[in-house]
Design goal:
Elements: E1 3-6, E2 22-26, H1 28-39, E3 54-58, E4 66-68, H2 70-73, E5 76-77, E6 80-81, E7 94-101, E8 110-111, H3 113-123, E9 131-136, E10 154-155, H4 157-165, E11 170-173, H5 182-192, H6 200-204, E12 211-214, E13 228-231, E14 242-244, E15 248-251
């Protein structure tokens, strides 16, 4: 029997993140009132005067655990129009999970090519098409706190390019962004004036088409770094730059 590990954080208006969703829950009794008005009926016709509970959500598609489409990074990728979320190949969203353990890195550090080479050598695994790389920074334990957005390491251009050159088309991370923390990037840019320090992994998506899964959770609950599947199919918002996902690791006994 397969074991399933939920790799997603919850969507909640109480999340401490830049754009948490607003969620309005409508009760079964209010559902009966609304439906009866719409159909010209009386609420008493429904069992116990209750009909259907419904929910209305107003939110940013980049809130909670989500998949970034190439369109998020720029209008063009690999010399052609970048794909929006509804155009993303489904095979990019399901594949062999590979956990890259970067918990020894300090918050704000860049994950280098050397880090990635050492990690894959320890796993005795060569990355390739069909692999979904999951970068484990340890940041997920800070979810729900103000520290969450700064307690991660992240990829730069070199590391991102190294992974994608192997044929990988999906990179996930247990943090707010696949890049380094936002303020770390901004501070370094202000010191140097080097524009390449700002969201380098995101903007590399203009060079090479790929997906990012951001704000993953529970990577520490996956009992092995290889030999499991990852499913992260996003909600199909037409023309969108990203979509919410219930990411799951599937481990066969």
């Amino acid at each position: 029997m397969a074991k399933y590990v939920d790799l997603s954080v919850q969507h909640s208006p109480h999340n401490i993140e830049p754009a948490p969703p607003f969620i309005e829950h409508l009760s079964h009794r209010l559902g009966a009132i609304n439906l009866s008005r719409e159909l010209g009926l009386h609420p008493l016709v429904f069992p116990d005067q209750m009909a259907f509970a419904t929910d209305t959500v107003f939110g940013d598609v980049h809130s909670g655990t989500h998949v970034d489409a190439p369109w998020h990074y720029g209008p063009m990728s690999e010399g052609k129009p970048a794909r929006t979320l509804d155009q993303v190949p489904l095979e990019w969203c399901y594949g062999n999970g590979v956990i890259i353990d970067m918990r020894y890195k300090n918050p704000g550090d860049e994950i280098t090519v050397e880090d990635l080479e050492n990690a894959t050598e320890k796993l005795d695994h060569r990355l390739g098409f069909g692999d979904i790389v999951l970068i484990h920074t340890g940041c997920a334990k800070y979810w729900g706190t103000p520290e969450y957005m700064k307690m991660q390491s992240g990829l730069g251009i070199a590391g991102t390019a190294w992974i994608l050159e192997k044929g990988v088309r999906c990179i996930g991370i247990d943090a707010w962004t696949v890049d380094r923390p936002m303020m770390a990037m901004v501070e370094d840019f202000k010191k140097t004036g080097d524009q390449s320090l700002l969201w380098p992994s995101h903007f590399y998506g203009r060079v090479k088409e790929y997906l990012q899964i951001e704000k993953l959770a529970n990577l520490d609950l996956i009992p092995k770094s290889l030999g499991f599947k990852v499913a992260a199919f996003p909600v199909k918002f037409i023309g969108a730059s990203a979509g919410w996902t219930r990411a799951v690791a599937i481990i066969d006994d």
